[in-house]
Each structure stands twice: as C-alpha cells, then as structure tokens.
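User: Design a sequence. Structure:
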C-alpha cells in the first residue's frame, strides 16, 4: 500500500464551511464513490458560483482504526470485519452508510477441486484475519460442508497489476503452490487472468448469499453529537448519494468514473480494462439497510471474536454500532 495520499477538493457548497477528513483504504475500489462525490461537488455549477474557498473533504489512506485513534478524522470507510475489530474496544464507533457490497470469489485449480467440498485436505490461499479469510471459511463451511480443520490456510498477498510476483495469490495459484485462493478484487480477477495465461483449468466459486463484504462509511458518536460537524457529514452524505447513483447506473459506469477509479486506486496505474472487468462484482449500495447489516455483524463477530480471542458481542450491543439517523436526516429534503 502506498504512502498516505491526501485528496482535497476546493469549491464545496456554501453551507459547508470546513473540511471533513476521511480515512479510507486507497488500495481498494470500494472507496472511490467518496472521491467521485468530492470531485462532482468541485465541478458543479453551484460550487463554482458559491465563492466558497474551503474544500468539502480530504481523503487520507487509512480506515476505522484511524477514526478511533485520531480525533481529527471525521469519517472512515472499511469492511465490516475491521469495524467489528475496532468496536470491541471503541464503543463510540458508528456505521452511517453502506458504500458497497462485494461478493468475493474463490478460484480453485480444477485438477484440485471442482466443488467447494472437493477442497478438503487442500491448501487455500488468503489473507488470515481479514474479510477474505472469513469469506473462505464461510463458503467452505456453508456450501462445501468443510470445517477449518479440513483444509490448510496459506497466507498470500494481494496483487494490483499484472504480472503478479512471487508471494501473491495469482502467482501462487498459477504455479501450484496452493490449490485455491480467495480474496477481494482486483486480486481475484488477476488470479483468473494468471490461470488463463498459464493455461491452467480453473473453477470459480461465488455465493453472495453466503457472504458479501459490506464496505461501510463510519463516524463516531462524538462527531455526530457535534451540531456543526453533523451538518457537514449530512451534506457529504447527500453528495455521496448522488455519486452512488452514478456508480450504480444500469448502463454501467461512465468513462469518467472508470478513469477516476483506475487512476485513484493505489497500484492500478490507470488500468481501465481491469476496472471494467471487476465492476460487475461490486454492488454500489448507496444506502443503509440496518437490519441486514446487523445480521452480518452478529454472525461475523463470532468469527472475529474467535480469531481475536475475545468474547463475542451480543446483538443488542452490536445494534448500537449502526446509526441510521444521519442518512435519514440527509434525505429529509
């Protein structure tokens, strides 16, 4: 992951007089509607004519770990796994919006397995302790009937651009170091590409009903209780709603959006073809379905608690992690 990148936009709506600081993982595609929202605010006619000189937001590399440790951070985006990890010790964390949902993929060498159950006794590459590792366990359990002791987890790295080097999941699977790999995008697309280049028959497993990453936008109870700061956050959610609608356009993303994503995600180096290839795997939610998110949190926290060697949180406790009032306020008028 590259060094921290600061992205600022000048020319926000006049009602927003200060800069929101957002911590987001700049190496994932999921964060990019936030950046598009900022860029659109900058280029809008109303923004240009408002005379406002303060940028509406800045995005710095990070996530929920930053918002609970740095009071200068107002918003943060991450997958639900990291939110659970931080909420266990920071009960002031709040989920206020779902930016994206991603149905992860697991790819196996067909010679090793053509069904999840066939991966018994095999080596599965992923990144332990992450949402990808949770996905692998859930898929193999719920679809393949396998428990964690039925296979071996092998740690591997992500890849953002071809050719993928030794130690990355695409390289490991193509060279037979592992039998299958499960990870977020674009690594899995590069896994598929590497298998095709190497001429290795492979099988792709994907089941969004078993697990889809829920990539959320977070704040803290303190930030939301501050009237001035809350007003800025509400204004940003209005912009984000518009950006999400454009990302989720039935006809697909515009060339401008694809270009922005390709040039703004760390490691993609402007690869628009790769962005287009993984786009269908992403659902640009642009909402907050509190009950659905809570169901995911309750089930997943049992796994996170086991990995982190702590007691799982109750459904009642986890319900306080979600605050739907901010989005409701943003949509009032």
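Assistant: Done.
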């Amino acid at each position: 992951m590259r060094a921290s990148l600061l992205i600022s936009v000048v020319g926000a709506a006049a009602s927003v007089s200060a800069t929101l600081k957002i911590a987001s993982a700049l190496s994932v595609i999921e964060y990019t509607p936030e950046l598009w929202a900022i860029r659109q605010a900058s280029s809008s006619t109303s923004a240009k004519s408002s005379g406002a000189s303060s940028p509406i937001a800045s995005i710095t590399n990070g996530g929920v770990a930053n918002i609970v440790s740095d009071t200068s951070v107002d918003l943060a985006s991450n997958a639900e796994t990291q939110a659970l990890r931080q909420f266990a010790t920071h009960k002031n964390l709040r989920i206020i919006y779902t930016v994206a949902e991603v149905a992860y993929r697991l790819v196996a060498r067909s010679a090793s397995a053509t069904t999840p159950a066939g991966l018994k006794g095999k080596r599965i590459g992923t990144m332990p302790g992450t949402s990808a590792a949770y996905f692998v366990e859930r898929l193999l359990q719920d679809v393949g009937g396998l428990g964690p002791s039925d296979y071996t987890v092998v740690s591997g790295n992500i890849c953002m651009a071809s050719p993928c080097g030794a130690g990355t999941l695409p390289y490991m699977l193509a060279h037979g170091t592992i039998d299958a790999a499960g990870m977020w995008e674009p690594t899995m697309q590069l896994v598929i590409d590497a298998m095709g280049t190497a001429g290795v028959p492979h099988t792709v497993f994907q089941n969004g009903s078993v697990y889809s990453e829920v990539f959320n936008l977070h704040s803290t109870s303190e930030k939301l209780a501050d009237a001035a700061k809350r007003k800025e956050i509400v204004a940003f959610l209005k912009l984000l709603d518009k950006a999400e609608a454009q990302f989720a356009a039935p006809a697909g993303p515009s060339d401008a959006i694809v270009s922005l994503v390709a040039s703004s995600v760390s490691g993609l180096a402007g690869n628009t073809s790769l962005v287009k290839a993984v786009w269908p795997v992403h659902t640009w939610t642009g909402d907050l379905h509190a009950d659905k998110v809570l169901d995911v949190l309750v089930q997943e926290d049992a796994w996170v608690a086991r990995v982190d060697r702590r007691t799982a949180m109750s459904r009642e406790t986890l319900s306080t992690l979600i605050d739907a009032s901010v989005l409701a306020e943003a949509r009032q008028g």
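The longest helix spans residues 227-247. The domain at 105-205 is CATH 3.40.190.10 (D-Maltodextrin-Binding Protein; domain 2).
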